Amino acid sequence: MLEVHGLSKRFPGVQALDRVDFDVDAGEVVGLIGENGAGKSTLIKVLAGVHRADEGQVLLNGEPVGIHTPQDSFSLGISVIFQELNLVGNLSVAENIFLGRELRSPGVLRSFLDFGRTTQRAQQLMQQAGLNCDPRLAVEELSLSHKQMVEVAKALSINSKIIIMDEPTSTLTGQETELLFQIIERLKSSGVAVVFVSHKLDEVFRICDRLHVLRDGRHVGALQTARTSRDELIRLMVGRDLGTLFVKQEAQISDTVLEVRDLGSPKGIEHVSFDLHRGEILGFAGLVGSGRTEVMRALFGIDKRTSGEILIDGRPVSIHSPSDAIAHGIGFVPEDRQVQGLVLGMDVRQNVTLASLQAVSERGFLIDAREQGVTGSFIEKLSIRTPSQEQIVVNLSGGNQQKVVVSKWLATNPRILILDEPTRGIDVGAKKEIHRLMSQLACQNVAIIMISSELSEILAMSDRIVVMHEGRKKGELDRAQASQEKIMEIALRQTDQGVA
Ligand SMILES: Nc1ncnc2c1ncn2[C@@H]1O[C@H](COP(=O)(O)OP(=O)(O)OP(=O)(O)O)[C@@H](O)[C@H]1O
Ligand SMILES: [Mg+2]
Predict the structure, then answer these.
(1) In the sheet where 269-277 sits, what is the strand order?
(2) Residues 132-146: pLDDT tens digits?
(3) Is the pLDDT of residue 220 over 90?
């Protein structure tokens, strides 16, 4: 149905696509797979009319087509869910779904939006997408995962022939992912062609019929999912064997560095208490929306606290803003990098050193060589794909932006490091590197809190696990006792009995 031949796209300093071929058929789900910076989103943006290719051809049902603007792409029946969501924060859910295609009032009132009909139609689409919220809510009020579902509803509203989804599940809960997969199955059986991008290989193997693999902007293989293995896919993607999964080093766990007592916040957090030790990795598990991020925001001084006490090294401290928290040696890698983690208009070096200006200055002056040294070492350690340290961060691929956020907080040399979904959107190789780095930091006595929705990551990395549900701590597990089943059992337990 859709074929791409010899597509190339160059950005200053980067050959993002190099004579790429690609195809997807009606009623088929095709995975577009590759490391961070391989060119997946660029290919998608060419098909969406956001970028213009330097060379190459796009065919639809055998006929060459020109896609020069988003409007062209739209009229050809292509709809795209972008990796960095494309919603207007201060408009309502319903307005976002129908943006540019507003439903008008009948007759002489035609110049007015038909709010009733828009809201009603939006409600139907949201139900199809499994989203339960008021369509009149402003999008900025929604969680990341709900924003993602609004994008899905929007794509469904168009009745497209081809739906392209760039990492749609990176912010979804397990349950929401299941729903999305049901939607994809339905689209597939009604003859829609679906392109699916994800770094979660389990998902890729479950939902995709065929895979196209990109490496460094080149198409390196097309595979039938049923006739390939995870290892073969990784080898093709990375260009070498990755070996076994990362095995956590045993760090020396010593004194208590942080005590949180009876924490409460206006965002629904109640009576949360826990300790954290030097050298320890404390995992925070729970469903999305269980309050894990909100606990960290209250701890880091972003949100007000309504109750509770924070002790560092046994002494009560007053943290009322992120700068108080940083002064006490706390670092925070937030989950929503575009809002809280990065200054998109600044370059890689400025972002990496942003939270550690003191370390790279002397008597108030920035020392270039130090900034360059620090930045260079992170670019190397985390293999950040960028043509230079001066590249503006908005031009990096999604996963590479995430690596810059992680670097920024690692550069502060924190004593306590909070990581909220640190490997979201990160490819398999870089994920292993981030795990290795976390483990190394723990061995250097740093105390780490890691929120993750991936239970396998929680189990692999945590010495202890706090399980949250609806703003409360439901229980705690030791590494030795923990299993997926136990975590789920605690997370879903109805009563408060057994709270550790
Ligand atoms: N607007 C831009 N200006 C300059 N370079 C860009 C721009 N957009 C992308 N690039 C570069 O093109 C390359 C491919 O990026 P792309 O976003 O397509 O990667 P990706 O495969 O989607 O990665 P990820 O898995 O991290 O999302 C990267 O090196 C990126 O830095
Ligand atoms: Mg991308």
Answers:
(1) 269-277, 256-265, 307-312, 315-316
(2) 788 888 888 887 778
(3) yes
> Which residues approach ligand 1 with their CB closer than 6 A?
11, 14, 16, 34, 36-42, 83, 385, 395-400
pTM value is 0.81
- b or e along 276-302 (b: 16 or more beta carbons within 10 Å of the residue's beta carbon)? bbbbbbbbbbbbbbbbbbbbbbbbbbb
Closest ligand 1 atom to residue 167 Cα is 27
Residue 406: the pLDDT is 87
Q: In this structure, which topology does domain 256-492 adopt according to CATH?
A: Rossmann fold (3.40.50)
- Spatial distance between the Cα atoms of 43 and 351, rounded to a whole number of angstroms: 27
**b/e string for 3-36 if b means 16 or more Cβ within 10 A?**
bbeebbbeeeebebbbebebbbeeebbbbbbbbb
Mean pLDDT across 98-121: 71
CB–CB of 129/154 below 8 Å?
Answer: no
Q: How confident is the model at residue 475 (pLDDT cuts 50, 70, 90)?
A: very high
Q: Which residues have C-beta within 8 Å of that of residue 410, sequence separation ≥ 6?
A: 331, 378, 417, 437, 441
Q: What is the dihedral of CA 414, 416, 420, 425, to 10 degrees?
A: 40
Where b means 16+ CB within 10 Å and e means fewer, 180-213 reads bbebbeebbeeebbbbbbbbbbebbbebbbbbbb
Instruction: Concatenate the DSSP letters of all residues of 63-96 into one string.
Output: EEE---SHHHHHHTTEEEE-SS----TTSBHHHH
**Ligand 2 centroid distance, CA of 37 (Å):** 7
Q: Are strands 361-362 and 365-366 parallel, antiparallel or unpaired?
A: antiparallel
Residues in the chain: 500
pLDDT of residue 121: 85
Q: Which ligand has its closest atom nearest to the C-alpha of 37? A: 1
Give residue limits of the domains in the chain.
2-238, 256-492
Report the nearest atom of ligand 1 relative to the CA of 402. 26
Ligand 1: atom nearest CA of 396 is 31
CATH topology of 2-238 equal to that of 256-492? Answer: yes
Identify the CATH number of the domain defined by range 2-238.
Answer: 3.40.50.300
Cβ pair 143, 57 in contact under 8 A = no
